[in-house]
Specification:
single chain; binds flavin-adenine dinucleotide
């Protein structure tokens, strides 16, 4: 897999040593994340909408009801900026100034296009479902023709992409290391709690392994 090439738009300027253009590393971040934020401009008004997504190869898919304003506007071929953020920890420094966060984040620029082809649309929905819980597509009822018609799927090519990653301890001013202030990292992780069975679930149906042992590590 070839790395992404930084463009005028995706060149990380501040702390460029934190920039990542390695395609595999970026896909790992996208695959671990659950929510993206899509930014676009409608009639001069910037809008940023949080939504789910899936990835299939070099394409990011978002989907929703045909009635969704976001999907209607985006389907007109407007420029978008999509971000995905994984928060790995709070970086607690000895000074207020040097507080920070450990994170892995991705920024994608591109143009969203409506997926018309039924096979690609189905594949996109598979990617979307598998992104939520790997193995789920095989377990559930697939979408019907009318469900497919009621769903808009947008494809955003992964061509102009950057990532930024911060790891490690706080970076304090040398004089501050002697201050009597606790400093370090408070790691944060998205972890599932106990699954809650639907009240109408037949008692004989057990929790599948992909739910029982769910984790987002990729
Ligand atoms: C959880 C979190 C907390 C943060 N907190 C702060 C904060 O408090 N203050 C602060 O200044 N910055 C913070 N950042 C970093 C912030 O995202 C920008 O990287 C930063 O503002 C520097 O922007 P810039 O001027 O270099 O980039 P710009 O010139 O604005 O961006 C140039 C290009 O670099 C790439 N890029 C920039 N940032 C990122 C990124 N985070 N991920 C992927 N690609 C990127 C994009 O392609 C972008 O178009 C935080 C990031 C995260 C994920």
């Amino acid at each position: 897999m070839t790395d992404f090439v930084p463009t005028e738009r995706t060149q990380v300027r501040r702390l460029p040593k934190r920039a990542v253009y390695d395609r595999e590393a970026i896909y790992q971040i996208l695959d671990e994340g659950l929510v993206c934020h899509i930014g676009f401009v409608v009639y001069g008004q910037p809008v940023v909408i949080p939504t789910g997504y899936g990835r299939d190869g070099d394409t990011l898919y978002v989907h929703g009801s045909v009635a969704s304003r976001m999907l209607r506007d985006l389907g007109k071929g407007v420029n978008v900026c999509v971000t995905v953020t994984l928060l790995d920890g709070l970086v607690l420094a000895r000074s207020a100034f040097h507080h920070s966060m450990n994170y892995r984040s991705v920024v994608v620029f591109g143009t969203a296009a409506v997926v018309e082809d039924a096979t690609t649309k189905r594949e996109a929905l598979r990617a979307f479902t598998e992104h939520i819980a790997p193995g789920r597509w095989q377990e559930v009822r697939p979408p019907t023709e009318s469900e497919l018609r009621a769903t808009t799927v947008l494809a955003i090519p992964l061509e102009e992409v950057s990532a930024k990653v911060r790891t490690g301890p706080p970076l304090d001013d040398e004089d501050d290391y002697s201050l009597p202030v606790w400093a370090g990292v408070l790691p944060l992780k998205l972890r599932p709690e106990q699954p809650v069975a639907d009240s109408r679930l037949a008692a004989s149906i057990e929790v599948p392994d992909n739910v029982r042992f769910y984790n987002r590590d990729r």
